[in-house]
Amino acid sequence: MSSRSQLAILFLVAALIPSVSATVVSSSNHAVNDDPPPVFPTWPFVVHTWPWKQAAEAAWKALNEPVDPSSNTKPALDAIVAGCTVCEEQQCGGTVGFGGSPDENGETTLDAMIIDGVSLQTGAVGALRNVKNAIGVARAIMERTKHTMLVGDQATDFALSMGFPRANLSTPDSIKMWQQWKDEDQCQPNMRKNVLPDPTKSCGPYKPAPMDKLQKNVESELEDRKSLDVNPYNHDTIGIVVIDARGNMAAGTSTNGMNHKIPGRVGDGPIPGAGAWVDSDWGACVGTGDGDILMRFAPCYIAVQNLRAGHTPRQAAEDSLGRIERFSDFAGALVVIDREGNHGAASWKLPFSYTVRTANMNATEIIDIQPGDWMYVQPLGDQRRNAKERARINDEIRKQHAEERQIKLQKERQLELERRQKQTTSRVALE
Question: 196: domain range?
Answer without folding.
Answer: 172-227
